[in-house]
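2024-03-11 09:14:02 DEBUG pipeline.ingest accepted 1 chain
2024-03-11 09:14:02 DEBUG pipeline.ingest length=432
2024-03-11 09:14:03 DEBUG pipeline.predict start
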Amino acid sequence: MHPTALLQQSFMAAVAAADPRKIVPPHLPSPGKGMTLVIGAGKAAAAMAKAVEDHWPADASLEGVVITRYAHGYAGAEALKRIRVIEAGHPVPDESGEAAARDIARRVQALGPDDLLLALVSGGGSSLLALPVETISMADLKATTRELLRCGAPIQDMNVVRKHLSLIQGGKLAAMCKARIVSLVISDVTGDAPTHIASGPTVPDPSTYQDALDILARFECDVPASVRAHLESGARGAIAETPKPGAPVFARAETHVIATAHRSLEAAADVFRAAGVTPVILGDTVTGEAREVGKVHAAIAREILDYAQPFKKPVALISGGECTVTLKNVAGGTAGRGGRCTEYLLSLAIEMNGAPGVYGLAADTDGIDGSETNAGAYFGPDALKTVAAQGLRADRLLEANDAWGFFESAGSLITTGPTRTNVNDYRVILIA
């Protein structure tokens, strides 16, 4: 098998390991005495809900509402029949998500002790399940989200703030429910703690209002006055805190993390192992500026090429996690197109400089990398020459944050469309 085909096969194996249609059914609870209400939020919400519908007893009660990102639902013959799917804004919340979240809250509050709440939680749910407290408008919540994104706050810190601005997140959905709660969670965060995934609507929240204020101060975030006033009131004790670990409301709740980034990396490792290539998982928590991570990984690859240390080829260096991209103002124009996966990959390709036998791939398991419709890209030893022959310089494209332009010119973009799952980014360097 050609190295680039092997790379792409490994990526699809990583995505398949987190396919809700495969991983949800084994974890489904038995129907309760009363009705079963399905609620959910995240990029995988529609696929998780479809898996529930397809495997739920036909004669058992089932209804519900889930919220997913625009273009991540189903249509036509695949459309769900018993669970309503709402599409809404991500990464910035919008009114569609707010209306759906309000409907979810109303339905959950109406449940009784004999009913079952089945919560389907996945990455992206923090912006999709958007129901701000009464004193904060949707416009102010949007502004706060944009500011947190601009300031470069990690997702865990962003979610600490969002939990304390919400009527439904940070365990508050569980607090308003009298029924048994079963939460099935697909993790897109490092560490896989359910409290950080979709801002933990059905699990305890260990963070505080003061933590949220400290985050705004640390990242010098300029948020609307209504947001700061609400958080300050909470820090003074004028507003009740989110439900904490050990709170009685969680006695009737159980949570199962059914997919993680590391399990997907292990599935990809199996592909290389079957092909006679030694897989080495560098970790599922790799973060930092994408182009700098690319340089670090290139240094490891160089050590293997030059000194057969710390691993001997053929070897595949596999990693996951979520890097960041800092957009730069480019003289005479605007920043280019792309995302964190392609920016990492272009930096890596430049550092490897066409080294023989070195191939790379980086793609987001949700199928969307940054500003375009591609999941990511791949490269081989001839990529730099191919693009240079078209009169383009890789270093200038990287400086302009135009990694998409490089890989589009190289003819090596990976386009899957929405995968309806999300266990963060997948990266691999194959030294053949």
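2024-03-11 09:14:41 DEBUG pipeline.report The mean pLDDT is 95.
2024-03-11 09:14:41 DEBUG pipeline.predict end
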